[in-house]
């Protein structure tokens, strides 16, 4: 007797695909540990900003917090990716998690004692960011190695929605803990959260690179860059992301636009930031059709164009409610674009190169928004906040259109990419597509 395949309702198909949580105990543990650790990381981010301002009352020192976080991520990133592609990714991730936990413990100690100068606090923040830069390319291989290829997008969506939820929850929890128990307890809770992340990854099997190890040093980095420039779909995805962030990142313009259009009300300013996050969470929660469609290329192009249009319309509106609606639309589009970009990178990159390409993706995700906020501030200084928003949105739309026109492989779906040259140290029969059941384990020990 044949068993009938269960029929999914339209609502079930629209909601977030949770098959990875049901089918892979290893992935489930990783997701839980990652979610708790992300909560702790956002608590630390708020606590560092609060502590540095409390110690200095200086906008320059407050700005240095972002610099201390960004520079190690960029400087360590590509070389960390090359090293990860030579090592056991599980061991590299556990080492990264341990380093981050130690930094949080040291931050907690100085938070309780109060005897460390602000430069020392920023040095610990920079060290923690460096360890995180080591862990990011290692973690980038987990989803395609642990899940079947048709569940990779769903696994990335689950990672994304839990991260966005913690981004909303973390600052609020940090505020409560700071008010009740102080900065030392906040840092200590972050250290504990890394312990759960360590537990989540400890049960992984060994995950050495498949298809040959990276060459050491600069040669390995250059092999990764050669793949990025030669693979038109992956290159197009990263260029699309850069166009969206560098040309249209809006957050540095929010205070100015709020003052120009809405009387400088701090409540409105807070809603601007929340609207982007709400749109992102909502889009990811209803990402079932996107992850099942298996056409991340055109989805990313459409979502990135929508991001630009939404921000341009926000720059034109004089109604706070209409502006919030446009920001919610933009946040939803950005979330879909990021999900599609990650799906492209992790399904089309050979496992032997995935650490380096994930590191490059992380750098794009870190550096692009910072450059975009700088661009918006400079342009607004020459004109106005609204003009900078509209110009940025239109430039983003034009750049995304250009990438789509010149990259037919990306428009075609992102799954039938041309095959670039394999790394010189890898066997010539190395497959150029990673992921799938054969690429790793689907159940925990």
UniProtKB/TrEMBL annotation:
<dbReference type="Pfam" id="PF05977">
    <property type="entry name" value="MFS_3"/>
</dbReference>
<dbReference type="InterPro" id="IPR010290">
    <property type="entry name" value="TM_effector"/>
</dbReference>
<feature type="transmembrane region" description="Helical">
    <location>
        <begin position="236"/>
        <end position="257"/>
    </location>
</feature>
<feature type="transmembrane region" description="Helical">
    <location>
        <begin position="269"/>
        <end position="287"/>
    </location>
</feature>
<dbReference type="InterPro" id="IPR036259">
    <property type="entry name" value="MFS_trans_sf"/>
</dbReference>
<keyword id="KW-0812">Transmembrane</keyword>
<protein>
    <submittedName>
        <fullName>MFS transporter</fullName>
    </submittedName>
</protein>
<keyword id="KW-0472">Membrane</keyword>
<keyword id="KW-1003">Cell membrane</keyword>
<keyword id="KW-0813">Transport</keyword>
<feature type="transmembrane region" description="Helical">
    <location>
        <begin position="31"/>
        <end position="53"/>
    </location>
</feature>
<feature type="compositionally biased region" description="Basic and acidic residues">
    <location>
        <begin position="421"/>
        <end position="431"/>
    </location>
</feature>
<feature type="transmembrane region" description="Helical">
    <location>
        <begin position="165"/>
        <end position="183"/>
    </location>
</feature>
<feature type="compositionally biased region" description="Low complexity">
    <location>
        <begin position="434"/>
        <end position="445"/>
    </location>
</feature>
<keyword id="KW-1133">Transmembrane helix</keyword>
<dbReference type="GO" id="GO:0005886">
    <property type="term" value="C:plasma membrane"/>
</dbReference>
<feature type="transmembrane region" description="Helical">
    <location>
        <begin position="59"/>
        <end position="80"/>
    </location>
</feature>
<feature type="region of interest" description="Disordered">
    <location>
        <begin position="411"/>
        <end position="445"/>
    </location>
</feature>
<feature type="transmembrane region" description="Helical">
    <location>
        <begin position="307"/>
        <end position="332"/>
    </location>
</feature>
